[in-house]
């Protein structure tokens, strides 16, 4: 990750101030706020949070104020008002707001990324085959520059002109994604959208697991489904997600079981069975290993304390 500058240039600082003011105005209270742009949501948090596990879908996340840590497996990523986060594939992550207060709340925007739209943009802009770079995680942090900040700010300004959103928002979003593709990590976004790359085949494996996490995982069948050898699937899958396919499936199962217990009131044995566990003791053991406490104690703490969005 590039070393952040101690202070942004004056023009960029002015854009940052406007970005902060506009998000603050659109977020009168804590939580995730939908907007007139379906792909755009705004997030506010008035205090640091405990770590919160969740499944992060592809998105661009830009913080206007505050700071956040995101963990992928054992790897940690920090981003703030100088650095943005891109998640290019669906990943089970853990997020924690680390810098926020009532006077200066954590303010963030999250813009969903549609791989199909990225593929169309690559074709329209003649970028097919142009992106080159080393393989990497499906998540990265990069220094925020003025052109990207300007595009994001123009998208936010459209919220004050709702009649213009249907026509102009898609154009501004294409510009934002174009700048990501042309950036130093653009190849990571490029590869997940192009059907002839191994990264795209790994993305298909990730999609399959997200739709079938409750089923037994037969790695040979999954490899055939995405047209990769077993060894290549293991290697490339871990390169993108920092997890093996089996570890990835386990994270999905445990996080969904946690959601079922928290939002639908299921007990641990039923939630574990619903997501594919045949043994309650194995479910409890693996749940505690991931979340740091057995289900009942963990849920009690979640209901009593603040939570954090993973975005």
UniProtKB/TrEMBL annotation:
This is AraC family transcriptional regulator. Residues 203-301 form the HTH araC/xylS-type domain. It comes from the Bacteria. GO terms for molecular function: DNA-binding transcription factor activity; sequence-specific DNA binding. The keyword Transcription applies. InterPro entries: Homeodomain-like_sf, HTH_AraC, Tscrpt_reg_HTH_AraC_N. Transmembrane segments: none annotated. Keywords: Transcription, Transcription regulation. It comes from Pseudomonas mangiferae.
């Amino acid at each position: 990750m590039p070393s952040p500058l101690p202070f942004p240039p004056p023009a960029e600082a002015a854009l940052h101030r406007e970005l902060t003011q506009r998000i603050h105005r659109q977020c009168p209270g804590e939580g995730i706020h939908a907007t007139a742009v379906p792909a755009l949501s705004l997030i506010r948090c008035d205090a640091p949070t405990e770590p919160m596990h969740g499944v992060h879908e592809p998105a661009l996340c830009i913080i206007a104020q505050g700071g956040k840590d995101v963990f992928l497996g054992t790897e940690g990523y920090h981003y703030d008002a100088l650095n943005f986060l891109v998640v290019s594939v669906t990943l089970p992550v853990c997020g924690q707001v680390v810098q926020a207060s009532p006077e200066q709340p954590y303010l963030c925007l999250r813009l969903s990324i549609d791989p199909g739209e990225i593929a169309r943009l690559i074709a329209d802009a003649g970028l097919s085959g142009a992106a080159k770079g080393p393989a990497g995680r499906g998540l990265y942090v990069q220094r925020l520059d003025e052109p990207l900040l300007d595009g994001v700010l123009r998208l936010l300004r459209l919220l004050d002109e709702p009649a213009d959103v249907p026509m102009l928002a898609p154009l501004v979003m294409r510009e934002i994604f174009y700048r990501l593709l042309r950036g130093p990590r653009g190849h990571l976004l490029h590869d997940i959208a192009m059907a002839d790359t191994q990264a795209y085949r790994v993305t298909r494996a990730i999609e399959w697991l997200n739709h079938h996490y409750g089923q037994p995982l037969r790695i040979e069948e999954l490899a055939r489904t995405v047209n990769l050898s077993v060894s290549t699937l293991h290697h490339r899958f871990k390169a993108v997600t920092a997890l093996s396919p089996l570890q990835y499936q386990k994270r999905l199962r445990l996080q969904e079981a946690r959601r079922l217990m928290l939002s639908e009131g299921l007990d641990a044995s039923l939630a574990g069975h619903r997501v594919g566990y045949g043994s309650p003791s194995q479910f409890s053991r693996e749940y505690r290993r991931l979340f740091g406490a057995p289900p009942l104690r963990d849920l009690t703490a979640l209901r009593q304390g603040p939570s954090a969005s993973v975005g």
